[in-house]
Amino acid sequence: MKHLFGEIAFLFRQQASVWAIALLACLASLSVGLGLQDISRQKAAIADVIALQHKDTAAVKVFAKEAGDAAYYRFHPTWDLPSPLAFAALGQRDIAPSILRIRALALEGQIHENEAHNPELALPGRLDFAFVLIYLAPLVLIVLFYDLWSGEREAGRLASLQAIPKARLRVWLPRIAARFILVSAVLVLAFWVGALISGAGLGETIAFTALILALLGFWTLVATLIARGAGSSPTNAAVLASIWFVITLIAPAGSNLVINAMTPIPDGATIMRENREAVHDAWDLDRDATLQRFYKLYPEFATSPPMQRPFEWKWYHAFQHLGDQQVEALSRAYRAGIAKRDARAGLVALALPPIAVQRALHRLARTDMAAQAAYQDRIRAYHTQLRTYYYPYLFTAKPFTPAAFDAAPKFEGP
Amino acid sequence: MRRALLIAQAELALMVRSRVALIGLIALLLLSTIAAATSHTHMAQERLSRIANQTQTDALFEAQPARHPHRMVHYGSYVYRPIGALAGFDPGIDPFSGTTLYLEGHRQNSATISAVRESSSLMRFGQLTPAFVLQTLAPLLLIFLGFSMITRERTRGSLGLLLSSGVTETDLILGKILALCAVGLIALSPALIALVSMVLATPSEAMAAALIGLGYGLYLLIWIVGIVAASAFAQSGQAALLGLVCIWCFVAIVAPRGAAEIATRAEPLNSRAATDLNIQAELRRLGDSHNPNDPFFATFKARTLAQYGVTKVEDLPFNFRGAVSAEGEALTSRLFDKHLAEVAASQRLQSYIVSAMSVLSPAIAVRHVSMAGAGTDLETHLRFVQQSEAHRFQMVQYLNGLHRNKLSLEDDAARSKDRLAEQRTRIGADNWAQVPDFRFKPTSASERLQSAISPIIILLAWLAGVVVLARWSRRSLGRSAR
After folding, report:
1. A354 contact partners, CB below 8 Å, separation of at least 6
2. CA dist., res. A29 & res. A34, Å (int)
3. What's the CA gap between B386 and A168, in Å, rounded?
4. Which of A101, A291, B229, B434 has fewest C-beta within 10 Å?
5. pLDDT for B117-174, tens place per residue?
6. Residue A18 CB neighbour total at 10 angstroms
7. Got the DSSP string for B60-93?
């Protein structure tokens, strides 16, 4: 313990280490601050839209006297609130919408809707805590470790250091531990402050902290292994930087390429187009046949009287759903394909610890592909609830009162 | 100059003998070749798939049966953002922005279906493209090969020997720069070959390709001169290496992200849902087509009746309902245009803010040159969205014109209740073929040149800066040799 404190005190007297750690502390705090701001913005944007939607709905209520009108004109907001840990690992939240307004019409034409983000800003990625941890912290560790042995050798002190009894325990272990502890302390403290402010739970905070330590532990191990070798200081620095570069930049980019090539998915644009074809073809098909197809899915409405006029809302809403039915297999294959790509990325992560940690952070923060898919599934479930809420008013004599308008199902967050 | 060449020759000979340098260079060449080949094939496939989608969509539109024209307004059309000939070199924003836009009446949809939402999160680590290799990877290799060029001479004591044998400081620095330039050129070659082959396939892109080549040439030259200057300044090899790797990390990795964070905060964008709702609210204030007594549509009716000198809409020489549809669409479309212009202005301002950050990082400047040249920058996307909106309006108004001129008001009003009237409101399928196809006009060669000028000037300023640094470093050479 005494050696450890001595070593930490010694580190603080070295200019390069002080600079490296100070820079890391600044960037870590900055990233936490930016992340917290992003999250509060997203929450405010969601609240904003829900408030605006109330006014819009009130305006629709004035003229939507029939259930068919309400189901056609009324938008229902859905949202994906950021989790308390999202500030630290923003993941896909900058490109996928966190609010989607849907109508009880065919869903496939609505669910792929995009956020109005600037793609140029999404291109480089975000400066969040996960970035500081995965990209920058290893470089700081490399700076602190690369000449741990070679520096002593080049200064001619290595032999005398090795001659100290229990050198491993009394010299090298404290040196390694001091560096690991300092870097960990800087990152963990910055993260804890953020977690405290955003009100993260104790369990998830501990799990996140464990991931931070695991990643730093991995790089400490790698750096120690290389630094202990026979290479000169510049060689060690170059080798470590190359390892970092291959693991954090080249391997993920290459894997992404291979995974996407290996895992073809149905064309998303085709799903939307076929959905439109299926929906619009209904105008020229036999109306009763369309309704019969619908009644096969919802036999409880089969007793609804036949159509009297060329246009009736029940027929319109029936073919909207049939349009979704027609592309359901394609849509499922599309989602399964994306999920499979993500699962394969998980396999790559088994070989590359930093990617594994990144994925685990995003999972904990619920900002990963699976979280996006889960939000879409919630939208789908809610859409079904909405449709089926309107059906009795469309297909039976059940009167659509203003109270019924108000009683339409509301989206519930996770 | 001759001495400088000799020094360069000696330095290159040393690199060839040192296996590490050779392996590094070969690895880079391999990676660069893989990146060029895969990115090119991928974007070529993507291009074909979008063309096929567009052809199929247009064919479907023309093949629609006889219908009420307003049905076609709701049927709508899709447009797919075309991919330029150089996009394989730098896909830029293409994978990060929606590629498909649904055009229909009364609504303005968002561009959807993007590669980033169809890939695993690995994609956010970066993509293996020639642009990525040159912007990020090549400078790091140059650092590894160049950091010790002068520190080595200094620590071995050969520096003083060289300088006393008649070699000037300028010769030495220039020689090392030339040697590193040779490496840079080799590193650049697979990407250049890819660029040239793309130009051979599409000669009209030659100027844009030259622009891209110039941008990357300047960018690598900045690194080369900077690395040699750092090597001259540094007291030890490891100090040079550490300093350079830190600078690299800031320039290539941190600064682009930081610039994006600053831009999102300096010019925040509304969520799409909020914009849509604001448009709806504004629309209700202006004119509510669901309200029979709405002042906007009442005025339109009075104006139209007065214009034709009749007292009721049934006496008009055309279908008044079609005219109302056209008037309503013009109203909504004006609002869409206004909001779209606002969003586009905000996004352009964001990009401008990012551009301004290139005084801190030449990587941002070269990225802008590269994306502008390849036609994969924000501007291309904004144009796609704005031209699509113009096309949407043209298509819808053409159909509303058919609605106004080819249908009788009586049938049109009765079509929801009367089966025969409904049949009579269907007009021939030949009308659909008359709708003009969407033809995307990408940024022209001269426009791309224009948008690349300021980043190129910034790159030149950077180059001037590092040259000054290199000249200044000569003094520290002379001092340490004595």
Report:
1. A134, A138, A215, A218, A247, A248
2. 9
3. 67
4. B434
5. 999 989 988 889 999 999 999 999 999 999 989 998 888 888 888 888 888 889 999 9
6. 12
7. HHHT--SB-HHHHHHH-EEEE----TTTTT--TT
Contact: A310, B416; criterion CB under 8 Å? yes
- Number of CB atoms found within 10 A of residue B441's CB: 8
User: For residue B145, what are its two tokens?
Assistant: 């090969």
B41-76: per-residue pLDDT in tens?
999 999 999 999 999 999 999 999 999 999 999 999
Terminal alpha carbon distance of chain B: 23
Asked if B116 and A358 come within 8 Å (Cβ–Cβ), the reply is: no
Alpha helix stretches (DSSP H) within B287-318: 295-308
Integer CA distances (angstroms), A414 to A39, A83, A202, in order: 16, 10, 19
Closest by Cβ to A135, choosing from B253, B261, B284:
B253
CA distance A148 to A155: 11
Alpha carbon B281 to chain centroid, angstroms: 33
CA A85, A91, A94, A100 torsion: positive or negative? negative
* Whether the Cβ atoms of residue A81 and residue A46 lie closer than 8 Å to each other: yes
Residue pairs between chains A and B whose CB atoms are closer than 8 Å: 268
Determine contact, residues B380/B442, Cβ cutoff 8 Å.
yes
**B431 has a pLDDT exceeding 60:** yes
* ipTM of the complex, rounded to two decimals: 0.92
Paired tokens of B187 = 């590193």
A259: nearest Cα among A401, A355, A177, A149: A355
Does the beta carbon of B419 lie under 8 angstroms from any beta carbon of chain A?
A: yes
Q: Return the residue of B nearest to A120 by Cα.
A: B93
At a CB cut-off of 8 Å and minimum separation 6, what does A332 contact? none
Interface test with B, best of A24, A31, A32, A118 (most B CBs within 10 A): A118
Q: Annotate A230-291 with DSSP letters as a single string.
A: S--HHHHHHHHHHHHHIIIIIHHHHHHHHHHHHS----HHHHHHHHHHHHHHGGGS-HHHHH
- In one letter, which amino acid is A153? R
The answer to whether the Cβ–Cβ distance between B114 and A114 falls below 8 Å is: yes
Model's pTM, two decimal places?
Answer: 0.94
